[in-house]
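INTERNAL AUDIT FORM
Audit reference: QA-55
Scope: verify that the stored structure record matches its stored sequence.
Auditor: D.O.
Record contents follow.
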Amino acid sequence: MKKLSIIALLMTVIGMLFWQPQLASADELTGHSHEKGLRYLISKNALVKDAKGSYRPNDNVTRGEFASYLAKSMNLEATSDIVFKDVPNTYVHAKDIKLAASAGIITGYGDGSFKPNAAISRQHMAIMLERAIDYLNIPKGTPTITFKDNASIIKDYRQAVAIGAQLGIIQGSEGKFMPTKNATIGQAATFVHRLMTLAGDSNTGNSNGGNTNGGDTNGGNTNGGNTNGGDTNGGNTNGGDTNTGSSQYAIKEISNGTLVGNQGFSTFEAAEKALTKNTQVIVQSDKIVKMSSGYVVTNKYVALKSETINDAIAVAGNTEMEYISSDATQVKVRLAGQVGYLKHADVTLIPFSMSKGRSYYSNENGEIKHTLYDYNTNKYSSSYVYGKAPSFMKPGEKYYSWNGIYFTNGNGSSKGEAYNYYQFLPARAQTQYTAEEIDAYIMNKLAEVESTGITLYKDATKKSKLIGLGKTLKDVEAKSQINAMLVLSIAQHESAYGMSDHAQNLNNLFGLYVYDTNPLNKKFDSIADNINELVDKFLQPNYITPGGSPGKNFANGAVVGSKALGFNVKYASDPFWGAKIAGHYYRAEKALGFKDANNPYTIGLTTTQGLNVRTGASTSNGPIFTYARSGMPVIITSSATNGWYEILSDKLYTGQAFVSKDYVQVIHTVK
């Protein structure tokens, strides 16, 4: 009995040592690898307990549930008359499904059903997420990420997967995406949490967009990796001792294009105070994090939050930007006049004296040629011609420009300002070419690309979807007041001269829309329908009309432009998309005899914010619209009368439009 008493006593003591009362707030989600995302959905009333009192984090998520998560998290409100035959009004997620469908995030199946109770695959979820990205105006750029099992992803789903991965919304496990695997409620919660973090929802509790809730698969990175790569905040900056191997930062000096020396510091601030020469830089793990002068190159696609226009701008990888300054966590940059901040992990800092090559402009036989540098291979990779060279540009010299407008050679002895006519010609301009002339140009261009022997262009003169488009383009120009040659130039660039898969198989020159059952594969009845859709649903309401449609801030000037102004600010992550479109227009003009350039429009830029465009040449006339920003291009159709210019209205409007001469500066274009 005595031994039994002693054993009982020991067991009691051991129990007291190892037993700890459970915290009152602990539940089935506490410690779960997707806990933060799950609690986010709970906070949005998107995730509730079932009849057994469980949130079911490890159960497969259904199509209806995921649609509901998105609708509630995105605060969707507008509904249309979209109806699915298998989603009655009594269905628990009926309202949210209708909201998501009205926003274009879900579309259902060809037979009119939605299959709300079916488990959703990871690749199918990626399609819905990409539509949500578009709805939220999150810049997505041109994705480059692929997975080891990329071949297992349905071909037309791959772009959506790549976009989600590049933005850090979706991940995989051990380099694989597992596209056909069903996603769990926990994984879905993490996806939505990352999406809304990128969208700037303060309720996510993660304003920096980090991925704090683990990988996509159960387990994975449960301690919260950083979607922008590595520890961008400089790790333990307070550790380390000066001049020891544990130092976090070091000052090095540039000598003959290389870095020498290794004076260590435990903090960035200490290293910054010790800088004494312009030739010195601060490095962290051999990566330059501060320099006196140089430029910045994006390592991958990034979303730059421009303080200049208070909007996010998509920027492709391999893009050069002006370096302004940097601290331990971020780099201040200027892209074509747009000032913003990027994390060190997203960019590479290059002092001018260490540059191995930079993109440059040159005068080649009287034409301006842009030669691009690839920082991944450290080689010049491609080039294109997009207009006449400005008069100040000397043959044999390399010129550099941050915005494609102001140019200077290496030593600053030759410089000037030049606006390319086709790049900064407002969309309301009318081309002087007839439908027949456009058709003749198209056939000659197709014969040219066909003669290159490139497989993509085989039989282009017989198969291209651009053949015979002249009348359609001129009809669009007459109806919508959008330059026919501009639309053709965009079509040539986006569809590989009408020979891309989407153009050939789907009558889709522009890759418009994504569908559940046919992602990225909306088939248009005709090329004319596709062009009208581009004009009526995208260019007209969002990119040309000042102010854009409600909730969209795409109208930065009615020109293809650059990252400084125009469609290119928001339309494409490629900073030279506008110049490349201009190149197509220029080459067509060159082939057809420069009829447009020889009888050019006068173009001006507005010089103030809040400028009213009025129905008459007086402030007593009512405004047609207002330019919120300065620097907006306008076509001036008559000389100043009583201090007013008559202009072409960027808003679709057939009457006269006037603007005060005092707030418009005429620019000299190169054509």
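Auditor finding: record pair retrieved intact. DSSP finds 17 helices and 26 strands in the chain.
Action required: none
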